[in-house]
Amino acid sequence: MFDFAEDDDKIKVQYRVPFMKARNRFACVIVCIMMMTLCIYTAADKLENILLTLSHENDIGPIINSLYFIGSMLGSYIFTWQLYILSSASNRLRKANNLLAKNYTDS
């Protein structure tokens, strides 16, 4: 997400080319929110299916639904983490550039 560039013999941190425009970062945030919502919905649906089919003996349905549930929860976690990274990117970019600027003024 970030790249290093040299400007007047100073290193600065900037967004990589795909993330330079705020529109692209906003689109990534929207996709993350949609996928996170889909994963949470799928997990809730599979949990309901698990609870409804627990009484069936010798049935593979609850096992498959359990695997779908675990996969959906992992997907939700991954997209939540990606959303956090995208939403805190400008803060981290500013902090990195301030730290580098402070390093150049100290020396």
Number of helices, counting only DSSP H or I runs of 4 residues or more: 3
Give the overall shape, derived from the CA principal axes.
rod-shaped
Biggest sheet details: 2 strands, antiparallel
Query: What strand order characterises the main sheet?
Result: 1-2
What is the rounded Rg? 22 Å
Oligomer: single chain
As residue ranges, the low-confidence spans are none
Number of strands: 2
Q: What's the helix-strand series? A: EEHHH
Beta content comes to: 5-15%
Helical percent range? Answer: over 70%
Distance between the termini: 28 Å
Class from helix and strand fractions = mainly alpha
Task: Summarize the helices and strands and which ones pair or pack.
Elements: E1 2-7, E2 10-15, H1 22-53, H2 61-87, H3 89-106
Antiparallel strand pairs: 1-2
Helix pairs in contact: 1-2
Keywords: Membrane, Transmembrane, Transmembrane helix
Transmembrane segments: 26-44, 64-86
